[in-house]
Design goal:
Largest sheet: none
Shape: globular
Distance between the termini: 29 Å
CATH topology of the largest domain: V-type ATP synthase subunit C fold
Structural class: mainly alpha
Number of domains: 3
Mean pLDDT: 91
CATH architecture of the largest domain: Up-down Bundle
Strand content: under 5%
Radius of gyration: 20 Å
Order of helices and strands: HHHHHHHHHHHHHHHHHHH
Length: 349
C-alpha cells in the first residue's frame, strides 16, 4: 500500500484545519450571525453557503458541520482504495454510527421533536442522511431498533438482545452500553492480528474503552449504584485496567477516592483538578479532562511512522475535535455564555 501518498494527503488536509488563532477569532464573534460570517472565511465556506439556503443561526452551523464531515470522509474514502486502509477508516466512521444511534434512541425515549434530534446527528457512511432521517421518523425506541434490523445493520443485534430488559426497567443506559460493547468488540476483533498498523488502532481503541469505563465508574459512584449492579455497564478490552482493577474502583466510596487511586496510572492528571470540583462531584469537569486526554492522544498519532495508518488516526481526532469545538462555540453563543467560560469548554490541540 502507498502509505506515503496517503500520509501526504492526510497532512495536506490537516494543514487546512482551523488553528488556535482561527478558533479564537470564532470565539470573539459577538453573535451567531457574525460567527457564521467568520466561518465563511474558512474551509467551511461551501457548507455554510449551502446551509444558509435553508437555515439560519445555530441550525445553519449544525447543518454545515454535518455536510462538511460527510464530504470530508467521502473524500478520504475516494483516494484510499486499499482494503486495509478502508478497514481502518470504517472503524472510525462506525464511532459516529454508534453516536448517531444513541442520539436517536435518546430523542425517542424523551419524546423530543424529530427536528431537534436531526440537529445533533452527523450522517456518515452506511448511516447516511437519508438513512438517519428515516430512523428519526420512527415513532419510538422499539421501532428504531426494528428498522435497523430490517436493514440488516449489525448494531440492531445487541439492541434487540437488550431490549426486553430495557422494556422492563426503562434504563436507556442498557441499550447504550450494549452498543458500545458491540462496537469496541468488533473493532478490536478487526485489528487482533499482530502488526504495526493494527497495533496503533488497537491502542487508541483500548484507550477509549478505558475513558468510557472511567466515566461510567464516576457516575455510578456519584449515584451510589452498588458495585454488582454497576459491573454490567463496564466494557471489556481496555488498555490500563483489567476486570479486577475496574471492580476495585467500583468499591470506592467517593470521587476523591477514585482520583486518588488513579494517581498510579496515566490518569494521574485528574489529581490537579480543584478539590472543590471533586468534593461537589462535578463529573462534567472530570469528563472534560478525560475527553481532552483522549483527543490529545489521538492527535499525537501524527508523530508516528509516516508510512503507516498514524496520519489517518491523527487526522480523524483532529477533525473530530475541530467540529466539536465549533459546535461548542455556536451553542455557547446561543446561550450567551461568558467568554472565559466558553474558552474553558474548548480543547486546543
Amino acid at each position: 500500500m502507498d502509505w506515503g501518498y496517503i500520509n501526504a494527503r492526510m497532512r495536506g488536509m490537516k494543514s487546512r484545519l482551523l488553528d488556535r488563532r482561527a478558533l479564537d477569532n470564532l470565539v470573539m464573534q459577538p453573535d451567531l450571525e457574525s460567527l457564521i460570517a467568520d466561518l465563511e472565511k474558512t474551509p467551511y465556506k461551501p457548507d455554510i453557503l449551502e446551509a444558509k439556503v435553508q437555515y439560519s443561526g445555530v441550525l445553519c452551523i449544525e447543518y454545515a458541520l454535518r455536510k462538511n464531515f460527510t464530504r470530508t470522509f467521502r473524500k478520504i474514502l475516494e483516494f484510499v482504495k486499499e482494503k486495509e486502509a478502508e478497514k481502518y477508516i470504517n472503524i472510525f466512521l462506525h464511532r459516529w454510527y454508534v453516536q448517531n444511534i444513541k442520539t436517536i434512541l435518546r430523542g425517542k425515549n424523551i419524546h423530543i421533536t424529530n427536528e431537534e434530534i436531526l440537529e445533533c446527528l452527523v450522517p456518515a457512511g452506511e448511516l447516511d442522511e437519508a438513512t438517519v432521517i428515516e430512523l428519526v421518523r420512527q415513532p419510538d425506541v422499539r421501532a428504531v431498533i426494528d428498522m435497523l434490523a430490517t436493514w440488516n445493520i449489525g448494531y440492531s443485534k445487541p439492541l434487540t438482545e437488550e431490549y426486553p430488559e430495557f422494556a422492563k426497567t426503562g434504563d436507556l443506559a442498557l441499550l447504550e452500553c450494549a452498543l458500545d460493547e458491540y462496537y469496541y468488540a468488533d473493532a478490536l476483533e478487526q485489528v487482533k492480528i499482530p502488526g504495526y498498523n493494527n497495533g496503533l488502532i488497537r491502542n487508541i481503541i483500548s484507550l477509549e474503552i478505558d475513558v468510557v469505563n472511567l466515566r461510567t465508574i464516576l457516575r455510578m459512584i456519584r449515584d451510589h449504584i452498588v458495585p454488582e449492579e454497576a459491573k454490567k455497564y463496564l466494557i471489556r478490552g481496555g488498555k490500563e485496567f483489567d476486570q479486577d482493577q475496574l471492580d476495585h474502583l467500583l468499591t470506592l466510596h467517593s470521587i476523591e477516592e477514585v482520583v486518588e487511586e488513579l494517581k498510579k496510572t496515566p490518569y494521574r492528571f485528574l489529581a490537579a483538578l480543584p478539590p472543590s470540583a471533586l468534593r461537589t462531584q462535578k463529573i462534567s469537569i472530570i469528563e472534560k479532562q478525560l475527553e481532552k486526554f483522549l483527543v490529545q492522544q489521538g492527535v499525537s498519532a501524527f508523530l508516528g511512522d509516516p508510512l503507516s495508518v498514524a496520519s489517518v488516526i491523527g487526522y480523524f481526532w483532529a477533525k473530530y475535535n475541530e467540529i466539536t469545538n465549533i459546535r461548542i462555540i455556536s451553542r455557547c453563543k446561543t446561550a450567551d455564555f461568558p467568554l472565559d467560560q466558553l474558552k474553558e469548554e474548548l480543547v486546543y490541540v
